[in-house]
Amino acid sequence: MPGSLLLLFFAFRTVAREAVEQGRMGRRRTVGAMDGAIEPPW
Fold first, then answer.
1. b or e along 16-41 (b: 16 or more beta carbons within 10 Å of the residue's beta carbon)?
2. Mind listing the pLDDT tens digit for each residue in 1-42?
3. How many CB atoms lie within 10 A of CB 11?
4. Can you tell which superkingdom this protein's organism belongs to (predicted)?
5. I need a labelling partner for 35 at 20 to 30 A (CA). Which of 3, 9, 11, 14 fits?
6. Can you spell out the DSSP letters for 1-42?
7. 33/4 Cα distance (integer angstroms)
8. What is the distance between the alpha carbons of residues 11 and 4, in angstroms, rounded to a whole number?
9. CB within 8 A of 25, min separation 6: which ones?
10. Is the pTM of this model over 0.85?
């Protein structure tokens, strides 16, 4: 089922983005590594 896979991926990206937003306020170390793994830094 490609549809559900895409939905899972989208949900994961949303959660990761929220984690990045929180990382800017405090937990920079863990979220920085997660952000680098999900999104290229350019």
1. beeeeeebeeeeeeebeebbeeeeee
2. 678 888 888 888 888 888 777 766 665 555 555 555 555 554
3. 10
4. Bacteria
5. 3
6. -HHHHHHHHHHHHHHHHHHHHHHTTS-HHHHHHHHHHHS---
7. 26
8. 10
9. none
10. no
**Tokens (6 digits) for 2:** 């490609």
Q: Do residues 32 and 20 touch, judged by C-beta distance below 8 A?
A: no
Contact call for residues 38 and 16 (beta carbons, < 8 A): yes
Structure tokens at 14: 């949303």
Instruction: Report the length, in residues, of the chain.
Output: 42
Locate tokens 């896979």: which residue?
5
Return d(Cα 38, Cα 25) in angstroms, integer: 19
